[in-house]
Design brief:
The chain is of the alpha/beta class and about 575 residues long. The chain folds into four domains: about 80 residues, Orthogonal Bundle (DNA polymerase, domain 1), CATH 1.10.150.110; about 60 residues, 5' to 3' exonuclease, C-terminal subdomain (DNA polymerase, domain 1, Orthogonal Bundle), CATH 1.10.150.20; about 170 residues, Beta Polymerase, domain 2 (2-Layer Sandwich), CATH 3.30.460; about 240 residues, TIM Barrel (Alpha-Beta Barrel). It is built from 24 helices and 18 strands. It has a five-stranded mixed beta sheet with strand order 2-4-7-6-5, sandwiched between helices. It has a five-stranded parallel beta sheet with strand order 14-15-16-17-18. A three-stranded antiparallel beta sheet has the order 8-9-10. Strand 17, helix 22 and strand 18 form a beta-alpha-beta unit. The chain is globular and about 75 Å long. It binds 2'-deoxyguanosine-5'-triphosphate, calcium ion (2 copies) and zinc ion. 2'-deoxyguanosine-5'-triphosphate binds next to helix 11, helix 13 and helix 14.
Length: about 575
Amino acid sequence: MPVHNSEIAEIFDHLADLLEIKGANPFRVRAYHNAANTIRGNSRSMTDIVDAGENLTELPNIGEDLAGKITEIVRTGKLQLLKEVSSKVPDAIVEATRIPGVGPKKAQMLFQQLSLRTIGDLRQAAEEGRIEKIAGFGAKTQAKILEELSHSDFGTRRWRIDEAEDFAGPLLDWVRKIEGVSKAEIAGSYRRRKETVGDLDILAAGAQGRKIIDHFTEYDEIVSIASKGATRSTVTLRVGLQVDLRVVGKESWGSALHYFTGSKAHGIACRRRAQKRGLKLNEYGLFNGTRRIAGATEDNLYKKIGLPWIDPVLREAQGEIEAAEVSALPALITRDDIRGDLHAHTKASDGKNTLREMAEAAILKDYEYLAITDHSKSQRVAGGLSERELEDQIEEIARMNESFAGFRLLSSCEVDILKDGSLDFPDKILSKLDLVVVSVHSDFNMSEAEQTERIIRAMDNPLVSIVGHPTGRLIGTRRPYPVNIERLVIAAKERGCCLELNADPQRLDLSDVQCRIARDAGVMIAISTDAHKCGSLDNIQYGVDQARRGWLSAKEVLNTREWKKVARLLTRP
Ligand code: DGT
Ligand code: CA
Ligand code: CA
Ligand code: ZN
């Protein structure tokens, strides 16, 4: 199995954090982070470069020593140095670095100065007010630590869906090729397309469970086997991701797939429904007494409990069974419904590709339009455009559009919403754009009321078309800023403004539940990738999956329409 660039980058970032906890030279720490960034952003895989015998030191930030370490990881999947350093740093300190605002240095200070050993100790210190007494920490940090530790998911690693996909795809291929496996599927939260997954649940159909499982556990990426029997096995992959495998006979395929797809609450609701009809439902089938009346397919199983098949993305016990009963399930949007993308960056701000490259990539996806939304001037670190530069870009786009048939670039901008809710550009220039996306990129720590008011003020401007990534969250790294979504949705509805569902798998902002709130209020959603390079236009699929989890159909999504209709919908009174 080839080692992914993201894995190598993660090893170096982790090593840098550990070294920082140990008090290593800051230059050395930075060198590993820089190397990680180089590797992550490189379009070719390190594995390919090493295999081709090419020289890694030609990459920026990679010297002889790092080249050697990259080669070691590519060849062995591991880095010996990481293991050595890691054994010298307490796990609890590493764990504490996952609290936003607590970097390696601060975590080390906390543990040392307060003589803490565990995360439990840290919580207690926060509760007793001992953290605010340390130099460099205030009451605010202390409250933040306490809040983070009280989230029930703290300490249990979850994987973003795109990270999980990197490992799930090859592993599923492996399982499908095992002799005696007639079909295999990944069930669980992965099949429900949740934004993060706790582990992978693989289901395989076959008669000889033990043989299949023996073969399964030979998979190259497995580092430890927690259990291994005749029908099930639990293993851990090199990256730390846990995998459950279940083998069932093909007569139970549908019922097992249903059981392991979950969610647990949906499964329980179905079981109760079966019971009401005098039937018994479990992973082996649907039974009338001892007679199996369904089990081979999900379709038939649902049918026998009086329901149409329910898409896995809806199986969250959020009213899908009631809706199915009265044939009121939504006609979910699909990838093919998408006709263009309304949020993308180019080299002019912080993107990697040119206007033309982005346009060509969009054309290859059969899109009819692509909105170019580079940052506005306040985003200095992200190369925000000046008014002059935006004017030039508008002209360049107009010229370029003459060379396209059946496609157009849209002139737009991702305009910063300033602290007081005003916009980073005056109306004079905004009125020259095809559409205006507005986003919050600063002052995340305002109160909920203030933040909500700020965004509503921005929407007051009738030139504003779409609010970008409305909650600002970064999955696993930054919680949403406090904002009242219900109020935002009502305000958007009143003003005829749209909300974005940002399809970047690190954002997926709005969440599924928030999409549904918008939908129920009749607010139109734009599914946009926020692509910073051509390849990221493919992230649209994650956005579509999230929209489906939010019960959206094509008509509730803005960019399922041709541009003329979109333009009409965006024109506000
Ligand atoms: P995850 O892994 O945390 O992202 O979430 P899931 O939904 O993949 O949960 P997981 O891996 O614990 O279990 C996979 C499925 O197996 C779950 O969605 C439903 C089913 N399942 C697991 N435990 C139970 C249980 O105690 N009762 C029922 N009815 N189903 C269960
Ligand atoms: Ca799972
Ligand atoms: Ca599981
Ligand atoms: Zn943004």
